[in-house]
TrEMBL record:
Pfam families: STAS
Molecular function via GO: anti-sigma factor antagonist activity
Protein name: Anti-sigma factor antagonist
Species the sequence originates in: Bailinhaonella thermotolerans
Similarity comment: family membership: Belongs to the anti-sigma-factor antagonist family.
Length: 112
């Protein structure tokens, strides 16, 4: 399955909307977007995962790497709208306590 990644800014925040499956084959697409984005040194990045049907350990490693790099630059990475399968992975791995996880995209970011 293809991975779609789109990025937009709203009120000084960056939202990355991801849909499809994040796995060994598609994770480099997400990694490339983070690399491009981190060069801009954003303060807050929210990953909207409402469209993500599956995320394996490779995808989680991409998110962890981005979190680490953002923290080092003084920024924050948040996860929004994870579907049940993705939420379960976050819970089983303990990453739900590492990331700030929102049930839905924060209201202040939901306007395009």
């Amino acid at each position: 399955m293809e991975l779609k990644v789109s990025t937009r800014s709203h009120a000084g925040n960056t939202i990355i909307a991801v849909s499809g499956e994040i796995d060994l084959y598609t994770a480099p697409r997400l990694q490339a977007e983070f690399t491009r984005l981190l060069a801009e040194r954003p303060d807050r990045v929210v990953i909207d995962m409402a469209g993500v049907e599956f995320c394996d350990s490779t995808g989680m490693n991409v998110l962890l790497s981005a979190l680490k790099r953002l923290k080092e630059a003084g920024g924050v990475l948040e996860v929004a709208s994870p579907r049940p399968a993705v939420r379960k992975i976050l819970q089983v791995t303990g990453l739900d306590s590492v990331f700030i996880v929102h049930d839905e995209l924060p209201a202040e970011l939901s306007q395009p």
